[in-house]
Amino acid sequence: MLDTQKRHRNTILNFAAIGVLIVFLLIIDGIGSVKLEQAFALFAIWGIAAVSLNLINGTTGILSLGHHGFMLIGGYITALLILSSESRARIANSARSQMNEFTLGLSIKNWFEALGLNALATDDTLWLRFIVAIVIGGIISMIFGLIVGIPSLRLRGDYLAIVTFGFGEIIRLLASTRLFAPFTNGSLGFSGVPSEFGKSLWWTFGFLAITVFVMAKLKYSSYGRALQGIREDEIAAEAMGVNLAYHKVLAFAISAFFAGIAGGLWVSWLATARLDVFLFTLTFFFLVAVSVGGTGSVTGVLIGTALVVFVRQYGDPLEESYTLWQWLLAGGVLLLAAAVATLIYRNIRRLRPRLNASIYIVVGLGIIALLIGLFAASGGQLQSEYRAFGMRAIILSALLVIIMIFKPDGILGQAEFNWAWLFRERKDQPTDEERAQDAWLTGPELSKRLEAAETREASAETAGESSEAN
Amino acid sequence: MAVSSIPEPKKRNWAPYLIIGAILMIVIGRIIFLGTVSDRFNAAFFTRAITESFKLGSLYALIALGYTMVYGIIRLINFAHGEVFMVGAFATFFLFSAAPYPWPVAVLVAIPIAFGVMRILDFWRGKMTDPIVLAGGGVVFFIAVWLLSATTVNFVLALIFSMLITGVLGIFIDRIAYSPLRGAPRNSMLITAIAVSFFLQNFGLLTLTRRQTPFRPDTVLNNSLVFNMFDGTVRTSWLIVVIPLISLVLVIALTLFVTRTRLGKAMRATAQDAEVAQMMGVNVGRVIATTFLLGSMLAAAGGAMWGLNFGSLNQPAILGILPGIKAFAAAVIGGIGSLPGAVIGGLIIGFAENFLTAIFPRTPEFAGITEFKDTFAFILLIVILLVRPSGIIGEDLSEKV
Predict the structure, then answer these.
(1) Rounded Cα distance, A170 and B380, in Å
(2) Searching chain A, which residue's CA lies closest to the CA of residue B193?
(3) According to the CATH classification, is domain A33-314 in 3.30.460?
(4) ipTM computed for the complex
(5) Chain A partners within 8 Å of B76 (Cβ)
């Protein structure tokens, strides 16, 4: 237990951090840079999805690869339910439309009007309809989460991962077929989804705050402990009385609910709902966020999401066209840097052999690339321009491999960000009593500490304070 | 003194026979029914469907062998195997259509080819620095440089070169990405494999091409083949013979390798128990490299014939995903870790995808199930994992405490 003083300090700091965040968002809102606002809104949306994926992947330790399917369900349902009448008319008039009377009439606006709530069906109350739509999307996504969770009762580990991947892909493939095309409008999708919610910092960060609050509360509840128990050792957890089936399916359902919400916001952010924005790539991005930030740590996942979103939104310079000699120079520098980094790493970790033979190959290739690049630059050769499409994804996947090799738990591991870190308090510091015991056990020359501790304890008691620490 | 136990009468399991019988009855019923619907559904139609399914199934079987071998040895679902297949397909395409190359490119391409040949000679000599291995690699290197820079390359040679290049890529992937994670949790290994798969997809976009690539080599292999079947004419190409034949040759070669050679025996020992095999003197590192080499070579052969079969290669970021995951489904259906299982699973997937859509075709009353065919593999995978996770002929997978 923390002592009262520290708890008060943490509460104050928490509120201060929230205040700083709000001021920060106000400033970003005030700057008026569209790109910056979009990046932050995207951070919040993907943050919701990544944090919800973290509940399955990190906390429960089940690798789930079907998150794009849940997002697709939430996104399409939200889009269908709040699509404006003009967009509906456009779809109905289009020759290639695959929707019918019934699906075109699926709209919360119509439902409100049918119920006689005309006041809620005006343009001013779109926000209310959006909330209703996104919650319905989340709930239907949750039902799918329950269905996907059922195989988790029989399967473990990598097999389950493949099955979740299969479910995600089935959802995506089915959405384009004749069976579901009336709901999804086939490969055309919907355009003209109201985008004032997904692009608004307040809406997206509001949903993110709710998600983070729920996930953080869940992590330290009895359910969260049970889920962590399942991650550490399924058999042991079952032996301790954890109902595996119930908890696993619960994790899938909650995660799918928030994934559906993220899908609704994502569709709103894009202003369109199309099948090609719900590819497996999306799940891969969240997987990078979860794995790099810290599997099981909500704050870590948010850090990872920030990284992914930064690379996605501000990685454009990587994919612009450069001349071939510039690419050669960059490649040479990269190879040499990798070699140096490896050398430093092996030296720090005292690994043997320090110099692997393959290092020579890497260094040699790097030097050759540098030399060719430099000669070509001075001689005016290799001037053809070249654009590196897919460089951002390459960087993210390389990052993921490196993280998996060197720090498989991610940057933060399973720990959450803690104010104590700022004050350099160590959690595992022994108490005075333990020190005294150590001293008594290790030898008489340390028994002075015992006396000192006793006197301190006595004085503390007289002062009427509790000397409990951690 | 041993206690003798009374042998229990073995109970016959009738479920497989029932399932096979039911499937056969449905198929025959559908064929008879379709015969009454239209003249279009004659014997030639179904012959064509069967041969096409067999062709597709043998391609899936080739890819599935790579999955099953890698899983058998290091218990890793090699998610990047589909991308290895993609690289094999594109390597064949570029070797076939872009040669002759300028000499620096030819040298760069010849390096992995020579290295692959050295790796294969190493099966026999057991040492990479053996003079025969080095000499073989050197000779192949110069021949490859000469061939690539002076002449065009015919399809079979392109196939072999592509297999060597892709095999070396497989070893390379294992060394860079997977080998640091030996003994790590399975989830970390799977995430790494996914990352490698994404890396290869986007690297393919970056270096190979960004468009769908037509690939219609004019070889003897895809000449058209027309023959009569009862009441109709089947118009198809020699590929329905060539692809299963090449696959059969490769599968037989692999089976002989695994059952008859020392290294194959070492592979089987490692698959049973890697630790004990290591204690018994098996060089596990060499076995793993061999596994990746052979699996990737088979995938490259599959990729080359995939291009030949469909006449075009999709763009690198999506070419490998669906065939890869379907082949994985095939490996699981057959029983992962088992070579005949992979072949059977591949054929099952091929038939499920092609023959099933043929016996439920588009008729005036019914719109057909063609657009659902990509989901069949996933549905089969999920069903088999739920009903019989060990696959049709597989070992028991339940976790031991």
Answers:
(1) 12
(2) A401
(3) no
(4) 0.87
(5) 158
